[in-house]
Amino acid sequence: MNSGPALVSILRQGSTLIASIHTALDDSELVRFRTDLVGQIGEHRCRGVIIDVAALDVIDSFAALTLRTIAEMARLRGARTVIVGIQPEVAFTMVRLGMGTGGIPTALDLEEGLALLTGGADGDRRRS
Predict the structure, then answer these.
(1) Mean pLDDT by 10 residues, the chain (128 residues)
(2) Domain count, the chain
(3) CA nearest to 52, candidates 90, 96, 14, 9
């Protein structure tokens, strides 16, 4: 996205992509992230996507919309999406402003997100 430190990392673990957002992204960076992530779903034939937003202390309306769009695009390409790591203050603000995740499953952390995708013991515990 730029020549400085990575703003986002996308790693593959088996048939799951794990995308970690390391810092707040502007609108053009969010669009590039969406394009890159959705492209990699097909390239790696992934069945699951985890988006880790733990490093974010703010999720604005465009970022929330982009996350919902990624999840829908992933679904249309045959992959399920889970958002992990939403900070308490961010969750509070999103609820107060009516910015939900559009039914995208959420989990506290990466471990729970992976369990949710693989149908582990806590697989159906959290839904947004």
Answers:
(1) 76 97 97 97 97 96 95 97 97 89 92 92 46
(2) 1
(3) 9
